[in-house]
Structures are given as C-alpha cells and as structure tokens.
Specification:
Chain lengths: 221, 240, 217
C-alpha cells in the first residue's frame, strides 16, 4: 500500500523557478492591496457622501465583493467582461478580481473604523478653518487607517492566498501557476505542491510578523 | 468686532436661542453665564458657523457668517474656538497637532509653522511636551494644547466653550490661568463658563442667559453685585 | 432581456451544481464546527504554551491557499496512500479541517471575551468546570462568536467554489462548463453570482444585526 517513494530532491531542484513565481505572487498581492486601499477609501467617501447614486455604487460593490466567491469575481473580470469585447490578460484579470475583493472588504473595515472616530474630530478640524476634504485627509483618514491596520494585514494575507486562483484564468507566472506547470512536466504533485504550500506559509508569516513590527514602530500613541 | 443681531436658532421644535443681540468690541472679554440649556454654548458654535441659524445675523468684522457667499473656512481662520472636549488629534504629536492647520490651511512652510507652534506651546506652558502624543497628557495639558492649536492660527477672536467643565477640579486652575493671560494680552474673547469668580475677575462684561434669552448684561461688579433680573438673582444664588 | 440558448436541462444541471455547493458546505461546516469547538476549548484549557503544536497545525490551514490544501490532500490520499476515495470525500475532509481552523479561533475569542471575574464568581458559587462552561461561558461566548461563525459558514460556502480542483462539479464549475458550451459567460455568471448572493447577503446581514444588537448590552 505504501509503495509511493517521495522524491524531494527532484522537486527541490525546481525551487528557484517556484521562488520566481513567489515574487510574481507578491507583486500581484501588493499591487492589489495598494489599489484596493485607494479604492476602499474612495468607496468609503462615496458611502459617507450625501449622494444617493454614489452610495448605491459603493454599497453594491461592497456587498458583491463580500457575498460572492473570490473565484467568481475573477471569472467576472476575465470571462464576464470579455463578453463586452474587452479581453484582459490573466495577470490583469487576476489583479482586477483581487483588487475588487480587497476594496470591498476594506471599505467595510473602514466603515467600522470610522464609527470609532468621534464626529468632534472633524468638528475640531473644521473649526480650525479646514475644508471637509482637509479634515478627512489629515485628521480622520490617518486614524481610520490605523484602526484598520490589523484587518488590512489579514486582507493582505487573503490577497496572497487569492493569487492561487489565477490559474483558473490561465495565469502561469505566479507561484501556484508555476507549480501547476511543473507538475504537468514531472507529476511529482505532492512534493511540488507541498513545497509551494511551505513557501505560501512563509510568505504569510513574514507579512504578519512584518506588520506587527511596523505597528510597533508606527503606533506610539 | 462681532455683532450678533436678533439671532434665533432651533433644534427641531426646540428653540434654544430666542433673539439674541450682543456686540463684542475688539479687545473686549465677554463672559456668558447661565444654567444648562440656556443656549450659551450654541451661540458660540453659531458665531463661527459650525451651526446654521434660523433668523437674524451674525457679523464678524462686517462679514455675515451665515451668508451663502461667505467662505467659512476663511472666516474661521480668524475665529479660534476651544471646546469643552479638547478634541486632541490622537495620531499626531503635540507639536504636529498645533502645526497641522497653519500648514494645511494657511499653507505655511514647516519650519515657520513649527516656530509659531513652539512659541504658542511655550506660552501655554507645554514647551517641554512637543514630541509627546496627546494621549500621554493630562486633561488640563490637552486643553492647553487645544488653546495653543487655536492660537497658532493667529485668530482675531477666541471663543471658549466651557473649557474647564470636563476637567478634574485640580486641573481647572492651570487652564484658567492660561485664559487669564490671554485676556491680559488683549485678546478679544467670548467665554462660556461656570467659573463665577473667574468670570468676575477676567471679564469686561458678563452676560446672563436664561432659556434662550439674554436676560441681563453688565460689568461684573454690577451683574454679580447688583443683579437686576430675578432669574439672574436666582441663578447666582444657586451657584454660590 | 437576454436571448439565450440555455435549456431546461442546463438549468437542472446548474441546480445540481448548486445542490453540491450546499451539501459540501453543510457537511464541512457541521464537522468543522464540532472540531473547531473542540480545538478552541482545548487551546483555552491548555494555555498558549501547551497548545502550541495544535495552534501551529491549525494555523497552516489559514496560511496555505485552500486550492493547495485540496491538491495536496487529493495527491496524498490517491498517490501516496493509494486509496480509492471520491473527490467529494476529499473536498469535505479538507473543508472540514479548514473550517475547524477558523472556528477554533472564533471559539477561543468567544471564551476569552468572558471576563475572568465572571467565571471566578461562578466557580465561587460552587459550580463545577462543566457547569461554569454550560451556564456562564457558553451563553456569553455565543454572543461574541455567533456573528463571526455565520461569517465563517458563508465564507466556507464561497470557498467551496474551489473544490472543482478535486473533480467535484459544484455550482461555479457547472457554470464554467456551460460557459464553454454556450459561450454566454456574462449571463451564466450572473445567474451563478445571484445564487451565492441570495444565500449569503441575507445571512450576512442577519449576522451583522446580531453583532450590533449584542454589542450594545
């Protein structure tokens, strides 16, 4: 029954290629986070605004992002939008899908964070002659981002894990995609994916530990 | 000069200001006293346009505060206000709290803003707390920081809304001293306060508000020594 | 609105996929919750140091992509152990453990949220550990944990879209098969997305409502 022989050496020989893939994975995750945070701030402003259409756009975005599978969102970016004649590369589709997801979840986190910031903070800013935009930009937003720091770290980990879904739209440069291609060549499925799993694990640990260090340096108040 | 002309203000069905008339001249210190719900704090937030008014007019140096054409952000630069809750910006150091508005609103460069901020913070006795975060300060220190923050905008007028009411009793003195110092320097001020002996010492005139109406106004010696209105007499008796 | 080649048979095909999604989710959430409560209580009882090995293992399920977990489990069972098991079994196995890892965190958070003084008060009244757990910790911890648990269950439903990798044709995979055949991606994806949304949205709102209501008192 146990006549399977593990061939770790053969699999480990592919490690450099997999690490190249890991770099692409991190690129996608970091880009999707930066874009996601920017969009989430925009969605938060939309939701705070008095405008009904803007509120509707933001709410729809947030609810779709939170209530459908991430894989569905990536399919939408790739296959769904393609029906309008717009064809994205696998990389772009994956980036759009994850960014959409990030923005939705982060916007919800930001909304929670805003509840923890008293209105009097804005009022204090306004009474110093600041415009509403200045009050948000210099007083409310920095506090909002700090309160949301832990959820943002979690979302970053999610973004890393979500990059593995790119394979479903033909992405083959990222860690999962590279592993899948190597598997098609060598059939060392268990060994290859175990190594990929370890790399993913290490990346997520680096992110959580790194975030903790940043938080210690940054949040001295 | 601040001119308040027949100002009315309601929150829903509740009319909190029922036609207030009051002029405050340059260099004058006017204190507003009265029971809770008398409308005295609301008046201050109306003066710098944080609250709209329902009728009447408020003019600051001839500019109508609530006129549509008035740039409130600009106007507020010359009217500083300090609230009962000091509203320190928790993510900024004491120095950054004070330099933020001069830099972003007045467009001052960092060095200049810091020089002004340091001067103001020393002025209120916080010269050694520049790099501290406000959460590490006592309430009295935070309130003095809030005063420095408002002063850093070089306002022509300062409004103080019960600035000692949220403080522990032993911290009230240091804030009152700061206010007294400002008054002696000739700052035009409107103060809402519950500190009667302070009001007596520092004010040029004292106004007594009762249920949205300015029942009586006069120099401190007269208002405290010989109150004319029956409600003033009652109020003063109750706080003594 | 849409001129579609979608037939009644195709709709039945999609409905079957939706059924698989729900069944896989229900099984995994049920088993995962039982295991998660067990693991969560063990972690609290043993303390951080003694439960470190368990914490480490559970953390792996939260730090490695689910897709890789599924592929690895499938390869291990099929190629290493050479067992003949269905993809459905592997899917439920992995998703159950995956659920338990998150559920253990939620349970631990819930128990930790019960103030130590409250528990000491219960014990000082002569309650046993079991009675304390049953009458004090359970009701209080549930208030903290239930909204998160609803979120977890919905998360597992959404993540179950990945079990296609072990040859389980759930809703999203069914949709994809139809897309390949009918070439109507937008229309089919909208149907598919609507299904997830209709289940997830009201339950998520309900969870949010519970959280709000219970955090006020």
């Amino acid at each position: 029954m146990f006549d399977y022989t593990f061939q770790w050496k053969q699999a480990l020989a592919r490690l450099p290629k997999m690490l190249d893939g890991a770099v692409v994975t991190m690129e996608v995750a970091v880009l999707s986070m930066l874009l996601g945070i920017a969009l989430a701030i925009l969605l938060t402003l939309f939701r705070q605004s008095g405008s009904r259409p803007l509120k509707a756009i933001a709410t729809t975005w947030v609810e779709i992002a939170r209530n459908t599978p991430a894989l569905f969102q990536i399919y939408m970016a790739h296959f769904g939008i393609a029906s309008f004649g717009i064809h994205f590369s696998p990389f772009t589709s994956l980036l759009i899908g994850i960014t959409f997801n990030n923005a939705g979840y982060l916007a919800e986190n930001f909304r929670g964070a805003l509840k923890a910031i008293p209105d009097t903070q804005t009022r204090a800013g306004r009474s110093l002659g600041m415009t509403p935009v200045q009050s948000f930009r210099y007083i409310v937003m920095p506090q909002m981002l700090r309160i949301s720091f832990l959820p943002m770290t979690n979302q970053m980990v999610w973004a890393i894990l979500m990059t593995s879904l790119g394979v479903t739209v033909g992405m083959n440069m990222d860690l999962y995609g590279v592993t899948q291609d190597l598997n098609a060549l060598t059939f060392r499925t268990f060994e290859l994916f175990a190594i990929a799993g370890v790399i993913f694990y290490v990346i997520t640990k680096i992110i959580t530990l790194g975030a903790r260090l940043i938080a210690m340096r940054l949040f001295r108040y | 000069m601040i001119e308040i002309q027949n100002v009315r203000k309601s929150f829903g069905d509740l009319e909190v200001l029922k036609g207030i008339d009051l002029n405050v001249n340059k260099g004058e210190v006017v204190t507003v006293i009265g029971g809770s719900g008398s409308g005295k704090s609301t008046l201050l937030t109306c003066i710098n346009g944080l609250e709209p008014i329902n009728a009447g007019k408020i003019l600051v140096d001839g500019t109508e505060v609530h006129a549509k054409s008035t740039d409130l952000n600009k106007l507020r630069q010359k009217i500083g206000i300090v609230f009962q809750q000091w509203n320190a910006f928790p993510h900024l150091t004491v120095l950054e709290n004070v330099t933020l508005a001069p830099r972003k609103v007045l467009g001052m460069d960092k060095a200049k803003a810091e020089a002004i901020a340091e001067k103001q913070l020393k002025h209120v006795g916080l010269g050694d707390k520049l790099k501290t975060y406000p959460t590490r300060l006592s309430g009295g220190q935070q309130q003095r920081m809030a005063i420095a923050r408002a002063l850093a905008m070089s306002p022509d007028y300062m409004l103080f809304d019960e600035v000692t009411s949220a403080l522990d009793p032993q911290l009230v003195g240091e804030v009152l001293e700061t206010l007294q110092m400002l008054a002696e320097e000739g700052m035009t001020m409107i103060l809402v306060t519950h500190e009667m002996s302070f009001a007596r010492d520092v004010s040029d005139r004292v106004a007594f508000f009762h249920q949205g109406v300015m029942a009586e106004i006069g120099v401190p010696e007269q208002l405290f020594g010989d109150p004319q209105h029956v409600e003033t007499q009652k109020f003063l008796a109750s706080v003594r | 609105m849409f001129d579609t080649a979608l037939s009644a048979n195709d709709l039945i095909f999609l409905a079957k996929g939706a059924g698989i999604t729900i069944v896989v989710t229900a099984i995994s959430v049920a088993i995962g919750t039982v295991l998660g409560i067990l693991f969560g209580v063990i972690r609290v009882q043993l303390g951080a140091v003694l439960s470190a090995p368990l914490t480490f293992v559970l953390d792996i399920f939260r730090s490695v992509p689910l897709l890789i977990q599924l592929v690895l489990a499938n390869a291990f069972v099929g190629m290493v152990l050479q067992l003949q098991v269905s993809g459905f079994f592997v899917a439920c196995l992995v998703l159950s453990l995956y659920t338990s890892a998150y559920c253990a965190e939620i349970v631990r958070g819930g128990i930790d949220a019960v103030p130590a003084t409250t528990r000491r008060a219960a014990r000082s009244l002569g309650m046993s550990w079991g009675q304390d757990m049953r009458y004090i910790v359970l009701p209080l911890a549930t208030r903290v944990a239930l909204p998160s648990w609803i979120g977890l269950a919905l998360g597992v439903m959404k993540d179950s879209a990945l079990v296609y990798v072990v040859q389980v044709t759930e809703l999203l995979k069914s949709t994809q098969i139809l897309i390949t055949r009918l070439q109507e991606p937008m229309f089919l994806l909208l149907i598919c997305g609507a299904f997830y949304f209709i289940i997830s949205f009201p339950l998520a709102r309900f969870g949010g409502y519970l959280e709000k209501r219970w955090s006020n008192d």
